[in-house]
Structure formats: structure tokens, C-alpha cells
């Protein structure tokens, strides 16, 4: 197995992703989808089966010849702890090796105090292990995502916007020291673009972008299968491009594009003009859902506020296209999925801004089920399971089996 680890690592990862996305799947189909020879697919899948990473789940329908064995990830091989820390809440989940959710808990957490937030992360991890009943020695990794500048190679939180308390925090090493479990720490939007790979939304060879326009504006970028972070872990912060806004952004500047398109802006405008009965405990998501319903029920003033915010989304997409020339763009926005005509206007605006770009040359897709974000922390663990150094539980298992 060492030859696979050293020389065919990318093929191994491609095969695992292919089996995960298209399960159950036969070896010849894996070869076609992974663009490798049937012999290579057969060899690697046989070794993965021997080591317990994949398992046969049945046979394909006969076409007159021998039935092909179908394979899927072995859900009992190990488990992943996934923790997404937003600005006011933490979502903690446990996945099995087939990326099926076994446990989820959502709790409030104040991210402004790093010590309290990290203590809460530790508590949520311990609570997840205790409540799920998953054996700790079967946990393959912990994935943690946060909204900020993060050096994911070292697992260091470089900084969170306007929060001086988060400065060069070695979160990966802190959590690993407490738990003894390999840990990945990523910016949430960069985790989202990796999630797109594991959900089959983008191909390994694509130049792709995931744009989240909700609480703010975040862009996860992938170039030929690799996450692009930039020199200072700040690539993709296109919400802070100057869009001539007069509103002061949370970064401290005036003019940032996200001040015109984010959920907080829409909520603020609706509150000023219509004074809806939002409460102090209502989440941003709850408020936006109520605003969407107001517009759908015929409130033209609320609809206009949503439409005005939507007109600036084209500026963000246009900036991504001109900066990175992607093959695929996936967009999440909480209201676009409810107003098809506004989404069509956004696309018209994008292609009007890019006169040289023909429709169809860039695949622009709306994330309507909003599952990409929830899979982000688990996906970064899956992506890194075969590249953890000596602490990688999968690599240790493969090494032991190859030397037995």
C-alpha cells in the first residue's frame, strides 16, 4: 500500500470521492469517472476493500455477462466530527465514513471572545462524542470552520474581521492537544468549495467558485482541484470591493459591496420602513424568512428592498468572473431561490457586464438546498485524510496492513 500512498495519492483520493458521490458503483464505472485504467481502478479498490475503507453492497443488473460488484464507502470504518462556528452559533455534527449525519447540535456562541469560543468548541466536541456513542478511537478527524483569515496548512486563525481577540490563534494544535484527534481548521467559504467536490457539484479539474451572499459576502475558490487562499489567506474577500456604498462596513470602511447585499442590510431596510415584529432573539435566518414571506404575500415595498439588494449581486459575480475566469460558479443567497425573476435579472446583468462571455461558457448554478455549507467541515477532513502526516489514522492503518 505504500506505493499507493506515495505515488498514487491523487488517484486514491479521486477514487474515494467517485465512490462517495456515485455510490453504489462498479469498478469499471469508477475507472471511467476517475479517468484511470480499469486495471488501476481494480487494484486500488481491492486494496481499499481489504483495508475496510470501501465495502461491496450488491451487484449490478446483468446485461448478459458476469454481474459487476457494486461498492460504497464503509460507514463503520470511522467517524468525523464537523464543527461550523459562525458569528453567533455553532453547528456540531458527527458523520460516518459515508458522510451520513449521525448527530447534530446547534448552540449559541459568542465569537467575539476567543477564549470563551474555544472553550465552547471543546465542550461541543466532548458533548458530541458522549451523546452520539461513537467510540473516540474510531474518530478519524475533526473539521472546524470559521469566518475569517485562516492559514489552513497550519490550522492557525490569523484573524477575524474587527475582532482583535482572534490574532494568530493556533486552533488546530489547541484542539489536537485536548482531544488527541487530528484536526483541520479552514475558512468556511474555502471549506464550501471543497464540499462542492465531495458532493459532486464541481469536477476535480475545474476552476470553480462558491459565492455565499447572506450574512456577508464570501467566496471560496478552487483552481484545478486545489483551494486558492492567496499569499495571506485573504483571497476571495470580494465583499469588500468598493461598490460606492455610503454604509460603513464591519471592516471599518465605507463603500464595501457586502453592505448593499447582505442579509443585515435587507433586514435593516425593512425594519426602518415597515417596523415588523422581529424580536431580539430572532436569528438572521428567521428574519429573512419572514421578509421573504412578506414579499411573496404582496408587500411591494419589501419586494423592492429585496430587488434593490439583488441588483448588486451581479457586481459580485462579475468580479469573480473577471478575476478568476471560472468554469463553474455556485451561488448561495437566501432569497434568490424564492424569486426566479430576480435570479434571471442577476444573470442578465452578469452577461451584460461581460460582453465577451457567451451564455453557457460559464456554468452558474444556484445552491437551492443549502447543504454545501453543512458538509464543509466534514469535507475538509475527507480531503485531508490521506495527507495527514504520522497522525493520520487512515495512513497508519494502511501502513500496518501493508507491512503485515
Quick description:
The chain has 404 residues and is of the alpha/beta class.
Task: Tell me about this structure.
The protein has 15 helices and 16 strands. Helix 13 links the parallel strand 15 and strand 16. The longest helix is centred in the first third of the chain and has 19 residues. The chain has a 5-stranded mixed sheet, sandwiched between helices. A 5-stranded mixed sheet has the order 14-13-12-15-16, with helices on both faces. A 3-stranded antiparallel sheet has the order 1-3-2. It is of the alpha/beta class and 404 residues long. Helix 2 crosses helix 3, helix 3 packs across helix 4 and helix 10 crosses helix 11. The N terminus is likely disordered. The chain folds into 3 domains: 73 residues, Arc Repressor Mutant, subunit A (Orthogonal Bundle), CATH 1.10.10; 145 residues, Nucleotidyltransferase, domain 5 (2-Layer Sandwich), CATH 3.30.420; 168 residues, Nucleotidyltransferase, domain 5 (2-Layer Sandwich).
Amino acid at each position: 500500500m505504500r506505493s499507493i500512498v506515495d505515488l498514487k495519492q491523487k488517484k486514491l483520493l479521486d477514487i474515494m470521492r467517485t465512490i462517495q458521490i456515485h455510490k453504489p458503483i462498479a469498478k469499471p464505472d469508477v475507472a471511467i469517472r476517475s479517468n484511470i485504467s480499469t486495471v488501476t481502478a481494480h487494484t486500488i479498490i481491492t486494496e481499499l476493500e481489504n483495508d475496510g475503507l470501501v465495502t461491496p453492497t450488491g451487484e449490478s443488473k446483468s446485461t448478459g455477462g458476469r454481474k459487476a460488484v457494486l461498492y460504497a464507502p464503509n460507514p463503520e470504518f470511522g467517524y468525523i466530527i464537523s464543527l461550523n462556528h459562525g458569528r453567533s452559533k455553532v453547528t456540531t455534527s458527527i458523520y460516518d465514513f459515508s458522510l451520513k449525519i449521525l448527530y447534530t447540535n446547534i448552540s449559541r456562541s459568542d465569537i467575539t471572545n476567543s477564549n470563551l469560543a474555544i472553550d465552547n468548541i471543546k465542550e461541543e466536541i466532548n458533548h458530541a462524542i458522549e451523546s452520539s456513542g461513537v467510540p473516540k478511537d474510531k474518530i478519524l478527524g475533526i473539521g472546524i470552520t470559521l469566518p475569517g483569515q485562516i492559514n489552513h496548512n497550519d490550522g492557525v486563525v490569523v484573524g477575524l474581521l474587527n475582532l482583535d481577540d482572534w490574532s494568530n490563534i493556533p486552533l488546530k494544535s489547541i484542539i489536537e492537544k485536548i482531544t488527541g484527534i487530528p484536526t483541520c481548521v479552514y475558512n468556511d467559504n474555502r471549506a464550501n468549495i471543497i464540499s462542492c467536490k465531495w458532493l459532486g457539484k464541481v469536477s476535480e479539474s475545474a476552476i470553480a467558485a462558491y459565492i455565499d451572499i447572506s450574512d456577508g459576502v464570501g467566496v471560496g475558490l478552487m483552481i484545478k482541484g486545489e483551494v486558492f487562499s492567496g499569499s495571506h489567506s485573504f483571497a476571495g474577500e470580494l465583499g469588500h470591493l468598493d461598490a460606492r456604498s455610503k454604509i460603513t462596513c464591519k471592516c471599518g470602511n465605507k463603500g464595501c459591496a457586502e453592505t448593499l447585499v447582505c442579509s443585515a442590510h435587507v433586514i435593516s431596510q425593512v425594519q426602518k420602513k415597515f417596523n415588523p415584529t422581529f424580536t431580539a432573539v430572532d436569528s438572521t435566518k428567521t428574519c429573512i424568512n419572514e421578509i421573504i414571506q412578506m414579499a411573496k404575500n404582496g408587500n411591494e415595498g419589501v419586494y423592492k428592498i429585496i430587488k434593490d439588494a439583488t441588483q448588486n449581486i451581479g457586481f459580485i459575480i462579475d468580479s469573480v468572473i473577471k478575476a478568476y475566469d471560472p468554469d463553474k460558479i455556485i451561488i448561495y443567497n437566501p432569497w434568490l431561490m424564492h424569486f426566479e425573476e430576480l435570479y434571471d435579472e442577476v444573470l442578465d446583468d452578469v452577461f451584460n457586464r461581460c460582453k465577451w462571455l457567451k451564455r453557457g461558457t460559464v456554468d452558474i448554478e444556484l445552491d437551492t438546498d443549502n447543504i454545501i455549507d453543512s458538509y464543509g467541515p466534514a469535507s475538509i477532513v475527507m480531503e485531508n485524510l490521506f495527507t495527514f502526516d504520522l497522525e493520520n489514522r487512515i495512513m497508519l492503518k494502511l501502513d500496518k496492513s501493508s507491512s503485515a
